[in-house]
Amino acid sequence: MARTGKRGRVYLVGAGPGDPDLLTVKAARLLASAEVVVYDRLISPEILALVPAGVPRLFVGKASHHHHVPQETINATLVRLAEAGHEVVRLKGGDPFVFGRGGEEALHLARYGVAFELVPGVTAAFACAAYAGIPVTHRGAARSVRLVTGHCRGDQPLDLDWAGLADPDTTLVVYMGLENLAELRARLVDAGLDPATPAALIESGTTPRQRCAQTTLEALAASAAEHAMRSPTLVVIGRVAALADALAWFEPIGAATGDVIASELASGGSAGA
Ligand SMILES: C[S@@+](CC[C@H](N)C(=O)[O-])C[C@H]1O[C@@H](n2cnc3c(N)ncnc32)[C@H](O)[C@@H]1O
């Protein structure tokens, strides 16, 4: 792209989990006036469709095992575009500072003296849970909520505070946990959490492709396999997950074809679709 002569700026913008109606007003305004958009794999097609025609879009997405574009290259691209004088929207799924490496990108921009702004987005934990009918805190069921990553580098074991996480009064929301469900179950049960604790798997939450499988901690991996859950999927563990049945309100387009899943709770509870 050509140099413009003016000083550029990078907006690190949270796009939320997929539903364009969950974009903040500021995110929508910046998207409408962006000169270039740099975006990730998790940006939904519905949100990308809001980028005006003719505005260049650079895909820098990463899949867990296929690091298409190294983080250093993304950082360098942002600096290069801003130094060329562009108003850059760096669009990230959910919130840029929640498991989004937004901090690393902001630090890099700061180091290179590039002006930047942070635009928070609705993080997947809160939005996907809400769209699945799961209040992450609920009187008598959950006094706190914890957001953790279920992803670890290479073959390393998950390094989390298992004793602290195995709290029946807490809702545990696991990002990027799909590949480590068996370990997640084993570690939490070892640390004392009841295997019958309700759980839910939410795939492509808030989008027309949303699917939600209600299950238990014990049956998490089996449920994911049974329903062929794929990334992006969020894992919710805690008593509140059992409320999804009563509070389901969102009807994704796929629901009509039976894509909303409600497994029989292994604890004996009935979970209708
Ligand atoms: C790299 S993290 C990015 C999180 C993002 N920054 C946020 O605040 O939501 C990606 C993980 O977030 C979760 N996730 C993001 N969007 C999701 C969605 N629409 N439905 C289900 N899970 C989602 C999945 O666990 C996915 O593997």
What does this structure look like?
With 273 residues, the chain is α/β, with parallel strands linked by helices. The protein is built from nine helices and ten strands. The strands form two sheets. The chain has a five-stranded parallel sheet with strand order 3-2-4-1-5, sandwiched between helices. The longest helix has 13 residues, at 71-83. It is elongated, with a radius of gyration of 20 Å. S-adenosylmethionine binds at residues 17-18, 42, 92-95, 98-100, 123-124, 128, 175-176, 202, 204-206, 231-234.
As residue ranges, the low-confidence spans are 256-260, 262-273
- Portion of residues within helices: 25-40%
Give the neighbour order of strands across the main sheet: 3-2-4-1-5
User: How many β-strand runs?
Assistant: 10
Structural class designation? alpha/beta
Could you state the order of secondary-structure elements as H and E?
Answer: EHEHEHEHEHEHEHEEHEH
Bound molecules: S-adenosylmethionine
> Which outline best applies?
elongated
Largest sheet: 5 strands, parallel
Query: How much of the sequence is in beta strands?
Result: 15-25%
Q: How large is the count of helical segments?
A: 9
Distance between the termini: 50 Å
Integer average pLDDT:
90
Supply Rg: 20 Å
